[in-house]
């Protein structure tokens, strides 16, 4: 199950990405927002991230205007590794090297075509482990300090 959520700045792109995911056969849980009315991105980041931590969802997609605020909020939650991506190379590395369990996108930055390529890239690759696992483990240690 893929969790998805956005604030108003990412609402339109969230709807596009959700539609594409469903067309491709992914199961999607939409945590809102459900209209273009203004909402605060931390209020969306939290339930999306909690659904990953509690095992309901495997991965999450978060979208705000720039992707910045919502990724900062998500990264405050221990166990979440949210990667703000604006290109496919970063999306690939975010999973292969950083094991990002959340990808963040800027709804006012990316067109829907590029955004979808970024999401597909991130979903289509695997964490490489090895030396990267050591580094991810050290991120977890930082959370305990
Ligand atoms: C909302 O206007 C906007 O600030 C938000 O979507 C996001 O871009 C913040 O980082």
What does this protein structure show overall?
It is a single chain. With 145 residues, the protein is an alpha/beta fold. It has one domain: Sugar-phosphate isomerase, RpiB/LacA/LacB (Ribose 5-phosphate Isomerase B, Chain: A, 3-Layer(aba) Sandwich), CATH 3.40.1400. The protein contains six helices and five strands; from the N terminus they run E-H-E-H-E-H-E-H-E-H-H. The protein has a five-stranded parallel β-sheet, sandwiched between helices. Helix 4 links the parallel strand 4 and strand 5. Helix 1 packs across helix 5 (112-124), helix 2 (41-53) packs across helix 3 and helix 4 runs parallel beside helix 5. Bound molecules: D-ribose. D-ribose binds at residues 7, 9, 41, 64-66, 68-69.
Outline of the structure:
The protein is globular.
